[in-house]
Amino acid sequence: MNKPSIYGLTLEQLTGWLGERGYSKFWATLVWEELYRRRVTDFERMTEVKPEIVQLLSEHFVMHTLSEHVKQESRDGTVKFLLRLQDGNLIETVLMRQKYGMSVCVTTQVGCNIGCSFCASGLIKKSRDLSAGEIVEQLMNVQLYLDQRGQDERVTHIVVMGIGEPLDNFEHVSNFVRIIKDHKGLAIGPKRITVSTSGLPEKIKEFADSDLQVHLAISLHAATNDLRTRIMKINRAFPIEQLMEAVDYYVERTKRRVMFEYILLKDVNDRREDAVELAQLIAPRRGSSSINLIPYNPVDEHSQYQRSEQESIVAFYDILKKNGINCTVRLEHGTDIDAACGQLRSKQMKKDAADRKQVTAG
Ligand code: SAH
Ligand code: SF4
Fold this sequence. Notes:
This protein is 39% helix and 17% strand. By secondary structure, the chain is of the alpha/beta class.
């Protein structure tokens, strides 16, 4: 059996694990600092820790279960990593340079069962959830890439917006958050972490009741049930009323704002009437929310959808603003490098399959 990744343990779990073997919290903290402060890349480099503890850890855990398959660097500084898991599956992680810092987008599942009609990630059914360790390792992979550049750059923000539905992998995503938030480790503040969901009402409530305290983003994409069901079939199971009830519960419980994501699809959900309906839906939640308009990143397999014209985006934005709705248009990153969620993975899988065919044919 494969050994688990040491990055999958929260500090509490690591303390408990070492405690059971007779080592005090002091040692757990030291190991933690080696992992996240000094960011050693293998167990032998944990020079601050007693050799017998290092030995014990290396017998039970590994530090690297992910390997880099492809890395694409964009002109705007975006870097997309295609990583291979121990079982051979591929996942994506993206580093984006923002004005306010370095943001990393992580994947939470291999594939996605929600199957939204516009998304490259949903093209492949979920084969499994990622472990907390596999999610933390994505971030460590990016941080080590930055460390190697030697410019003292740190990942400052996390968006859980890669392949998968994070609230369908609740426990592992929660532990991921606990690990990266820990102030003795990476210390990424909860206000700098955003989890995006396609809208699972019961899970949103559970999220609200949890200790995580991070931001929530809701993939809304339409303001009426007819249209939303057409774009996202999950809306049939959880229609807008149920979703909004859960969102209101979240706001009430956490006193936090939510962000609604709205992809603009040409002539599908970007018309003036769509903007008016969206404004009406959000108006009662004006003070506790914002809308992020996302220019659609075309996906080959979903040729029925095109990106909205610039004038439509501006007109849509203006209608929301006139109605007093907080609204931004998402800046795009890495448009020269398969930036849409799941795109690099699906292209690479097709390429790998074609290469395999060629080898067989040859
Ligand atoms: N499953 C979660 C998180 C991952 S998707 C969710 O759906 O929220 C993260 C965001 O990327 C979602 O808002 C999703 O709608 C958006 N997205 C997916 N495909 C896209 C594309 N081709 N262009 C622009 N945004 C896309
Ligand atoms: Fe899954 Fe999110 Fe893509 Fe929908 S948009 S298929 S929920 S990853």
